UniProtKB/TrEMBL annotation:
One Pfam family cited in the UniProt record for this chain: ADH_N
Organism encoding this protein: Gemmata massiliana
Alphabetical list of SMART domains matching this protein: PKS_ER (SM00829)
Keywords: NADP, Oxidoreductase
Residues in Enoyl reductase (ER) domain copies: 11-322
PANTHER family in UniProt: QUINONE OXIDOREDUCTASE PIG3-RELATED (PTHR48106), QUINONE OXIDOREDUCTASE-RELATED (PTHR48106:SF13)
Cellular compartments per GO CC: cytosol
Cited InterPro entries: ADH-like_C, ADH-like_N, ER, GroES-like_sf, NAD(P)-bd_dom_sf, QOR-like, Quin_OxRdtase/zeta-crystal_CS
Name the record gives this protein: Enoyl reductase (ER) domain-containing protein
GO MF: mRNA 3'-UTR AU-rich region binding; NADPH binding; quinone reductase (NADPH) activity; zinc ion binding
Length: 324
């Protein structure tokens, strides 16, 4: 019988359980996939802790790659034997085998390994919509990207550099600064000991940046607004430090008629056409060398509890993959 990581209740990493699961035949619109690699993302810890509530009991994980074993009636987008990857859908990628809505699966092209595909689907497609759609970064622009040594950060900063942007990145240590610099960051700010807004103003000659990409949330939000030039866009796409504290939206006008976006990947890939186009753009960036993906941490799937402890303890850099 296949196994999976499941949770019966929310809490710390100790609530993760390695359990036998029954996986039946796919129904209408479904495919059965045998995972070869499973991606890990910070949002998984939100689901486990209850910050982002999900119905319980539940599987966990939203990103993976593998082989299609069977498809349900009327499924035409994939067939048995296809190499596929996905991000999103019902939680449950922390598994050896699962049923999944077939329409969220995309083909993995030759030249992209299963581990790479599992590591980049969520992070790569997130980077794609952030820098190509939420705000279309143009050559010569200077942008600020928080957590530049994280999974999304390393992907996005390389891509931004390839687009001709000047990239300011924030990190928490000198070690992470070196990694981010090697992946496209022109300027690094050590947020644990430097005033981010002050440094951004120094780097930009007092002008500020047109866009800030912020996945940290509560600890950085207000300071990020001070990094923007008038009419700048604050893109808040995560809460690794906790939810942003409610604030008077009049602050946006006071700081220069600023814009605020809270985008999600689900919205940007809601249609099959958008999903396929986004994934193609990501895989093409990898195939052409604009972005190099380094899976820096690999764990067995049954060690998911340790993975979450390392992730929340800031002991990881870049992409993490678990192998079933």
């Amino acid at each position: 019988m296949p196994k999976a990581i499941r949770i019966q209740q929310t809490g710390g990493p100790e609530v993760l359980r390695w359990e036998d699961v029954e996986v039946g035949e796919p129904g209408p619109g479904q495919a059965r996939i045998r995972h070869t690699a499973v991606g890990v993302n910070f949002i998984d810890t939100y689901h486990r802790s209850g910050l982002y509530p999900i119905p319980l009991p539940s599987g966990l994980g939203s990103e993976g790659a593998g082989i299609v074993e069977a498809v349900g009636p009327d499924v035409t987008v994939v067939k048995p034997g296809d190499r596929v990857a996905y991000a999103g859908g019902p939680p449950g990628s922390y598994s050896q085998v699962r049923l999944i809505p077939a329409h969220i699966l995309v083909p993995v092209p030759e030249g992209v390994t299963d581990q790479t595909a599992a590591a980049v689907m969520l992070k790569g497609m997130t980077a794609q919509y952030l820098i190509r759609r939420t705000y279309t970064v143009k050559p010569g622009e200077t942008v600020l990207f928080h957590a530049a040594a994280g999974g999304v950060g390393l992907f996005a900063c390389q891509w931004l550099k390839a687009l001709g942007a000047t990239v300011i990145g924030t990190v928490g240590s000198d070690e992470k600064a070196a990694i981010a610099r090697a992946h496209g960051c022109d300027h690094l700010i050590i947020s644990t000991r430097e005033d981010v807004a002050k440094r951004v103003r120094e780097i930009t000659g007092g002008v500020g940046v047109p866009v800030v990409y912020d996945s940290i949330g509560k600890d950085t939000f207000m300071n990020s607004l001070d990094c923007l030039r008038p009419l700048g866009l604050m893109v808040s796409f995560g809460n690794s430090s906790g939810k942003v504290t409610p604030f008077d939206i009049g602050v946006l006008s006071q700081k220069g008629s600023l814009y605020l976006a809270r985008p999600t990947l689900a919205t940007y890939t809601a249609t099959r056409a958008d999903l396929e186009a986004t994934a193609r753009d990501v895989f093409e960036a990898i195939r052409t060398g604009k972005v190099k993906v380094e899976v820096r941490h690999t764990y067995p799937l049954d060690r998911a509890e340790q993975v979450h402890r390392d992730l929340e303890g800031r002991r990881t850099v870049g992409s993490i993959v678990m192998t079933p």
